[in-house]
Specification:
single chain; 375 residues; alpha+beta; DNA Polymerase III, Chain A, domain 2; nine-stranded antiparallel β-sheet; elongated
Length: 375
């Protein structure tokens, strides 16, 4: 078997799919690429069994062929080359020769039968497949707004991903770790029936890096989701647990309204973080009609800080505590909003945080649990 390929085209392809190659795995076969040549099309696959990536390019080949080649070695070798033509040729005994205009190289390859089967969405049973199309930048923004609140605790596996919930209002992206919750609604994307799919954090992380402004076709089955971009496809297992009833923790009676400039509050919180005790990281907000007193104290170091931030507040004066790192995370992911609104009820009830300015066909709400103040 022989084929030729431009080194820079191959480098671009390998760069797209290399994120699916695991750095550590008890299955050495996963540290390889699967090469498949069919009718002059080279398709390369990589998988860590949770996600799979594949991409293709046209090559000049003399026959159809499949083989498994070392991923890191090949990727690093191709990256090291200036633009040239690489001539691949199998010579038997599991050896693959690579020839360029300046050198000859040899690597081992394995039989393709040893590589795990890559799932395909076409295997879905009738009536099981749902399909949507979403702009890549929109999907990337949804992930960037929500992924920080994905739970890292394996004892709650359902919360270790982004919930795609299709309902009457549209598509919701929901994440929560029990302390924070993000609920982003896209009103312009709908399915005919109520559906929930949980996409794991690993797939979300890889997609965030490769999405662009072009549309993405997403296919959901009961067990897998496929994200088809222009020149790459990612297939991921879905998390097979029921997502918790997140709506039950969203308070309905938060009648006190606080409006504040996002940047001013965030800068104050970040400074107060310097004065928080390392394990509690507590910051206190004393909220009055026109001013928030932001304060923190590190008893161990004998250090404290206090600042005033202007605001517009309608409600009873309130003192409320937050984990400063969690609050800073939320403010970071609302950083593009000039003003935000806090909806409060009491020092012990969850607080709703949302942009003041609404976007067309979109609703964004974040929720943060307070921490108790030692008064």
């Amino acid at each position: 078997m022989e084929f030729k390929v431009n080194s820079k085209e191959l480098e671009k392809l390998l760069n797209r799919i290399f994120p699916a190659v695991p750095s550590r795995t008890p299955m050495p076969i996963l540290e390889n690429f699967l090469f498949e040549i069919k009718d002059g099309l080279l398709t390369i696959y990589a998988t860590d069994l949770e996600i799979s990536l594949k991409s293709s390019l046209n090559v000049v080949a003399d026959e159809d062929f499949k083989m498994v080649v070392p991923a890191r070695l090949l990727f690093d070798f191709v990256k090291s080359l200036k633009e040239t033509t690489i001539h691949f040729k199998t010579i038997g005994n599991g050896k693959l020769n690579l020839t360029t205009d300046i050198g000859k190289y040899s690597i081992s390859y394995l039989d393709a039968g040893e590589f795990p089967e890559i799932p395909t969405i076409s295997n879905a049973e009738a009536g099981e497949l749902n399909e949507i199309t979403i702009n890549g930048d929109e999907l990337k923004e949804a992930f960037e707004r929500s992924a920080f609140a994905i739970s890292k605790e394996e004892i709650r596996p359902a919360m270790m991903g982004v919930l795609f919930e299709f309902g009457e209002e549209g598509l919701r992206f929901v994440t929560t770790d029990g302390h924070r919750l993000v609920n982003l609604l896209k009103k312009n994307i709908k399915l005919d029936s109520f559906q929930q799919y949980i996409v794991p954090e690993r797939a979300v992380s890889v997609l965030t890096k490769i999405l662009d402004q072009k549309d993405v076709n997403i296919y959901f089955t009961k067990t897998h989701a496929a994200f088809k971009l222009t020149d790459i496809e990612l297939i991921t297992r879905l998390i097979g647990y029921k997502y918790p009833d997140y709506m039950s923790v969203i308070p309905l009676e938060n009648e006190f309204l606080l409006k504040v400039k996002t940047k001013e509050l965030h800068e104050s919180i970040r400074r107060m973080m310097l004065f928080t005790t390392s394990n509690l990281r507590k910051v206190k907000l004393t909220i009055n009609k026109e001013v928030i007193d932001v304060s923190a104290e590190d008893v161990d170091l004998g250090a404290s800080g206090e600042e005033k931030v202007t605001c517009d507040y309608k409600g009873e004066p309130i003192e409320i505590g937050f984990n400063s790192a969690y609050l800073s995370d939320i403010l970071t992911h609302l950083g593009s909003e000039e003003e935000i609104r806090f909806k409060l009820h009491s020092p012990t009830k969850a607080v709703i945080i949302e942009p003041v300015e609404k976007k067309e066909n979109q609703e964004l709400m974040m929720l943060l649990m307070p921490v108790r103040l030692n008064n």
